[in-house]
Design brief:
264 residues; 10 strands; 8 helices; alpha/beta; two-stranded antiparallel ribbon
Length: 264
Amino acid sequence: MRHLFVIFTVIILCSAKSVAQEPKSIENQFLYEHHIVKGDTLNYRMLLPKNFQKTKTYPLVLVLHGAGERGDDNEKQLLHGGDLFLKEEYRDSFPAIVIFPQCPDNDYWSKVLVDRSTKPFTFNYKFNEGPTNALTSVIDLMEEMVDKPYVKTNQIYVIGLSMGGMGAFEILYRKPNMFAAAVPICGGGNPDSVTKYAKTVPLWVFHGAKDDVVNPILSTNMVSALLNNGGFPKFTLYDFANHNSWDAAFAEPELLSWIFSKNK
């Protein structure tokens, strides 16, 4: 009986050790947060640097998800890109605060009319009108974060994919002095909107040449507009990629080093 007790104890200790060593999931490492603006609630997830200290300062990265991750569960927005920022080599090399807001089902990051009866979809951008409620909430959250003493105001970045890529282009137009660099992926916008930031904000634009949801011409038009207005964008067009060009973009080995090398 005593031998059985010893064996049972060893099993329990080994199991406890195994659980303790199990790596944390995305859900466990990104904090659940929300931000309220004029009655509208913006859910978001926030990743803090390892050994975060309020007495230190850190870059801030805003990541805008695509239309498929809209909702109110405050989880789906981490589907694409969430694991990128959890890689140990990046957390050690580029300690930063990372924010993934979630757009509600009935809203959009960009002020745009979307016609889904065509393939690719047709987008009519209304950047000269006011922002959507969702983007208004994101801007308000970012302004609040920028005022925090532990945020490096010269290292604020935005990444967006699909609907979020359109949101990245638009938030640059609405807050051109906030961001040190931007990465719009398979997005688009109105080329007339780039004049506010073309010369001052470095961009790395990604798209898939085979994209049958968001026409790659939308990104090439934005890149052309940036060039015509004195900008020097970096542009990657994947000949093999369809709409999910974010997979290839997030796998770029130089992506985060390029982003964090930019200062305002």
